Amino acid sequence: RPGLPWEHRASLGWLGAGWQTLKLVLFQPRNAFRAMSLDDGLGNPLTYYLIFYIGPCVLLLALGGGLLLAFWGAASAFLAQQIPDFPAATLTTGLLTACYLGALVLLPVLYAAMLFLFSGIFHLMLMLVGGAKRTFATTFSAVAYSYTSTSLVQLALCCFTLIPYLGGCISFVLTLWALAWLVIALIHAHETETWRALLAVFG
Question: C-alpha angle 162/67/93, rounded to 5°?
Fold first, then answer.
């Protein structure tokens, strides 16, 4: 197999390889997972996941935390002026800052652990239905590339899921779409039958 563009980032460049991989997985999933290297190890897919999924999540968390801390700092200063005995504004701000910094550090670790956990579950389900034709590394790669790419779209469209009534439908459709892409990934990565991949994901 020729491998995904991300596997050739040394020649394509990190951003170029990431962008090409994203487009290929989103718009040509069958071709993408037919091209993906088998049993390539965990490094390439994990790096793709960390940079292109966890990276934006950390940036959004940092932005949200910064805005919240700025708001709390302004509110605390105002309350301290109005209420002389306003309790521990500085201490509370320090605790909030520490919590957000801790979350920024722990988020990549927790998300990476979740990726390993769900990949393990899907691989076990594939084994149970006789569809695991390759190793865990292949399942991990399929899950990482598929989940990262579809989740970026969901992240970009998350504001639309807040629309009353319509938001729930949009969220449901996006979730089904992401699961369908995962099924396609497992079918072509493991070269297994459709019904086995469907059972592994939805079973």
Answer: 125
